[in-house]
Amino acid sequence: MTSLARMPLLLLLAGLASASMIAPAAVALAEESFHDARSFFYGGIVGLVLTTLITIAQATRRHNRTASRQLLALLAAFVVLPAVFAVPFHEAVRTTSFLNAYVEMVSSFTTTGSTLFAPDRLSAAEHLWRAQVGWLGGLLMWVAAAAILAPLTLGGFEVTASGEPGQSVAAGSARRDMFDPSQRLATTASRLVPVYVGLTGALWLLLLIAGDPPLLALIHAMSTLATSGISAVAGPSQAPSGMAGEMIIFCFLFFALSRLTFSGDTRGLTRSRLRDDPEFRMGLLIVLALPLTLFLRHWIAAFDVGAEQNLGAGLRALWGGLFMSLSFLTTTGFESGDWSAVRFWSGLETPGVILMGLAIIGGGVATTAGGVKLLRIYALYLAGVREMEKLVHPHSVGRSGVMARRIRRQGAFVAWVFFMMFAMSIAAISLAFALTGLDFENAMVMTIAGLTNCGPLIRVAAEQPVILNELGATAKMIYAGAMVLGRLELLAIFVLLTPGIWRD
């Protein structure tokens, strides 16, 4: 693993991407879809040969010397690798352009989950490839969070770190983190890959027991762990497992609320116990409070008229609200089979606003979820509460503890800066979409879907679902750029443009 980590990161990822093409080739061969099998098999072989030759040519050079160069390679991966993923996909589908295939792969790799294709248009191997690319993108973010973003205090770590974004966390610890980035990458991958694979396998087995076919269960398992929301049948609501499958997926979505649910590799920057983790507690509060509010809204509205209530319908509406809240808070975007019951029960006329709000909040730092992230929201909450306390008691002293003071002061400031950058990104990208001919509502929905990496929003948040395949080439490329920007975050892009980070 260490020797592999010393390869150029982009080449390493390209090689792994090429090798992973063998899986859909085997599925296509088993189903006697020989064209798909040839497309993925030849794509994998050509990719492996090219990456091997380039690696040999670069063997005498030392790579991955600094965390900043790994960050640049991470950005390049989200831009370049989708083109590699798109080659066999474009060849297999045959009836689409390479641009459509590229945008589809950007959507999958950034775990956004938007699609340009109806489920019945793609074969089983092609559906598996979409889910597999999303799964690989989720794994990359798991590893990159601890190996690349944490040493540079990016990706949400800047809220609790003492250093500035793009700089060391502390004089000693950060220098050790950045001393040998390749070694840190190898160590992190060796620790997290078995966990990621194990959780995916466990979810796959549970969905099999619930009644899903093996391939569909695998696709949903991959999509859940990666929070990509990719499905071959328009989500778990259409799967044979039904509500049982939804409940199983619901339990595994909690891994996107806090990194402490699956790893303690970054606990030096956060709380050490899950029950004390502010992200997890805030996520639970949102997931419970929103459905209960919608549930009780019905009773309050019906109190004056004395209407009789159906308890079974109410419980199904409550479950649908719970699932949808967690699904869109983690930016997965799976739709519950009881979502229509939620809307009917609560009388909710504008569900898109709530779903977009959940996606903007996002999941936990250093997880596969997108959005602003719960830790940044928590920092803004602490700062707001403290300011209101000072209005009432100007000479009061805030809560004790170094971490609490850091989050409330420096952390809240950085979180506010990020939130403003996020808001300006929404405005700029929405304007760009509007210039391509989209109306305001669809432009806003697509912008938020891209920046939060919650692609299913374009299907459920707008009054009329946005058909990506009907958009022009310019709009598709803007959407691809928004997805990459949302995945890596604008703050990381600014850090890459800072000259000081390259002087090391």
From TrEMBL:
The chain crosses the membrane at residues 40-59, 71-89, 133-154, 192-211, 243-262, 282-301, 354-381, 413-435, 478-502. GO terms for biological process: metal ion transport. Pfam families: TrkH. GO terms for cellular component: plasma membrane. InterPro entries: Cat_transpt. Keywords: Cell membrane, Ion transport, Membrane, Signal, Transmembrane, Transmembrane helix, Transport. Residues 1-25 form the signal peptide. It comes from the Bacteria. It is a multi-pass membrane protein. GO terms for molecular function: monoatomic cation transmembrane transporter activity. It is found in: Cell membrane. This is Trk system potassium uptake protein TrkH. The lineage of its organism: Bacteria, Pseudomonadati, Pseudomonadota, Alphaproteobacteria, Rhodobacterales.
